[in-house]
Amino acid sequence: MKTLKIWVINGPNLKYLERRDPALYGGESWQEIERKIREKINPLSVDMEILFLDKEGDIIEKIHQISAEAKILEKEKNQKTGIILNPGAYSHTSLAILDCLMMSEVPVIEVHLSNLYQREDRRKVSVTGEGALGVIMGLGWKVYWLAVEALREELIYED
User: Fold this and answer.
1) Cα-Cα-Cα-Cα dihedral sign, residues 120, 135, 9, 60
2) CA-CA distance, 89 to 112, in Å (whole number)?
3) If phi over 0 gives left and psi between -120 and 50 gives alpha, with beta otherwise, what is residue 88?
4) Tens digits of residue pLDDT in 112-157
5) Beta pairing, strands 79-86 & 134-137
6) Which residues, at least 6 apart from 121, have a Cβ–Cβ distance to it below 8 Å?
7) Would the CA dihedral through 91, 92, 93, 96 be positive or negative?
8) What is the mean pLDDT of the chain?
9) Cβ proximity of 110 and 132 under 8 Å
10) Among candidate residues 106, 94, 85, the one with its CA nearest the CA of residue 154
């Protein structure tokens, strides 16, 4: 069976969820969310690495690095790679992240804890979502779990 490496890249301010508006972000700490996700993926053949990158350039560089390494992992270890990206506020503005996603050969699922369509007008648009395989939003911490499931379906069961 193929194994799956999933990178979770969280953008600005997501490491401080418990200090943000609980009505929008659920009031849980990232540690609580990570525990729930890892509990669900424990029986699966999924290796997950979670990053918090506040700077736009760091997010871009990491996606390029993952894309380059993915080819090697698949060839040498028969391991597929996917990315779950929560770009935070960059989702509304970053053409640079969009361009990076368009170049990446690794499938990306964009996630948002809150429903962008229920937010302020300036937050209703995801520029970066165009470069993603799919966008999951508005379901709190479950968006990460659903993104894992979507990547498993896309990468492991595609053959």
Assistant:
1) negative
2) 10
3) left
4) 988 877 787 878 788 999 999 999 999 989 999 999 999 999 998 7
5) unpaired
6) none
7) positive
8) 90
9) yes
10) 106
At position 144, the amino acid (one-letter code) is Y
Residue pair 74/80 in contact by the 8 Å Cβ criterion:
yes
Residue positions annotated with a catalytic role: 25, 112
- CB count in 10 Å sphere of residue 91: 25
pTM of the prediction?
A: 0.92
Tokens in use for 85?
Answer: 């990206």
CA distance 126 to 2: 32
* 90-103: average pLDDT: 96
**Burial group, residue 131, by CB count within 10 angstroms (0-12, 13-18, 19+):** buried
Average pLDDT of the residues in 54-67: 98
Domains of the chain, first to last: 3-155 (3.40.50.9100)
